[in-house]
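User: Study the shape:
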Amino acid sequence: MANSKLKDVAAVFLKLGFIGFGGPAVHIAMMEEEIVRKRGWMTHEHFLDLIGATNLIPGPNSTELALHCGRERGGWKGLFIAGACFILPAVFITGLFAWAYQQYGNLPQVRPFIYGITPAVIGVVISLMITLGRKALKTIEIGLIGLTAVVLSILGINEIFILFGGGLLGMLVYYIKQRKTTLNSIAPVPLLAMIGLTANSSNWRIFWIFLKVGSILYGSGYVLFAFLDSELVKTGMLTRQTLTDAIAVGQFTPGPVFSSATFIGWQIGGWQGALGATLGIFLPSFLFVGLLNPLVAKLRQSKLMSSFLDAVNMVAIALILTVCYEMGKSSIVDWETMLIMLAGFAVTFTFKKLNSAFVVLGGSLLGYLLFLV
């Protein structure tokens, strides 16, 4: 029985690793589809709790959600299998691009294909958020917290302050309603200590840099590139053009956007640099999820902490919608991209059993055709 569950975990996340185009938001949509709706491994409510939990720790959110789901289905072995199967396809594909880039100095012309990907992703994600939002919207107060989170995010407030602030506000609402204190003490999730080592090998230096990034970085893959601009470009280890090309690779390859670390590591130190960067960026996530996962169910058992999770879940949905808004400002620029977004939303919302990967790939194909017209 245990082996059967592990095979299920491997099959699902290997599939998602190969077809997961579009970034973290669409990865979450695909996981909800495969794990909750198709296979019933957990309830929508628990899936929402895991989304909220991933937003409370640093690292790539969709990768950490995959680790959580693997842990829920197959225990500790499931956690590692889910992570490996979700990450490795992107790493190998990105590695091939990195090798070709190092040999030939440029990337293939992919703009016509990625022209329609982002609008389709936005449509898919908005559809998912409507489904999850209905589950998360338990009270009027939770809804108001979500709306506040959208406004604060658009104004540029750090998402960590919004997440924890929303959670604390949810607890305050509960406290006011109950008129009594029922706080159960919990130990904070420990973070990796900053590692101050000086290594002679440049590849070890790459590993430590990306380990530090994976240990302290909150936010999307786009935040990663801003951080790496400071760590690598301004220190002369990498050119800004190469970093820009790494962003492009992260957009048009499947799997975690953080696999761009593989591309960057390869340009600095060859395949050994790619290995060091990949291990460094993803290793902290395994530790953080391993520490946090057993606490999620215990938090839900406490009424006060349950109100914290409810608020964080709604804030997480609000932040994803804000990401869609920001993506839309730069990618929905004409009637063609608007059409692709509306089509992606309509198809996903109407045909709930249709794999969202087909919607994203369909958006890419439609974008290619419209781009050439």
Remarks:
- The first helix runs from residue 2 to 19.
